[in-house]
Write a structure and sequence with these properties.
Elements lengths: L2 E4 L5 H12 L5 E3 L8 H11 L13 H5 L8 H10 L8 E4 L2 E4 L12
Parallel strand pairs: 1-2
Antiparallel strand pairs: 1-3, 3-4
Family: Belongs to the ArsC family.
Catalytic activity: [glutaredoxin]-dithiol + arsenate + glutathione + H(+) = glutathionyl-S-S-[glutaredoxin] + arsenite + H2O
GO molecular function, one term: arsenate reductase (glutaredoxin) activity
């Protein structure tokens, strides 16, 4: 069983999601995405696994950086993915990947749908 969590240890939802996985004896590889920035290809794969129509759905649109970069006006999907790659703080968290599926832990219990 391959499980990864894109984790920010400073984020309470991310910590809660990791604790929930541990409670259910689900061992996840922890990817601290702020230190180990996901590639453009990885971000595109995650967007597809989440079933999102737009990269914007994976973005933290309330971040000051989102506003500073004027991303609300950006409609080019490649540019949105590139912005997340260059500024991983813009990536919504936590993201749990299991095989070919993904879920965002907001609320943390949402990730349990990935597991039978």
């Amino acid at each position: 069983m391959t499980v990864q969590i894109f984790h920010n240890p400073r984020c309470s939802k991310s910590r809660e999601t990791l604790a929930l996985l541990n409670t259910h004896n689900i061992n996840a590889e922890i990817v601290e995405y702020l230190k180990d920035t996901p590639s453009i290809e990885t971000l595109q794969r995650i967007i597809k696994q989440l079933g999102f129509d737009s990269a914007r759905q994976l973005m933290r649109t309330k971040e000051d950086l989102y506003k500073e970069l004027a991303l609300k006006e950006q409609h080019d999907e490649t540019a949105l993915v590139l912005a997340m790659h260059q500024h991983p703080k813009l990536i919504e968290r936590p993201i749990v990947l299991h095989n070919d599926r993904a879920a965002i832990g907001r609320p943390p219990e949402a990730v349990l749908a990935l597991f039978p």
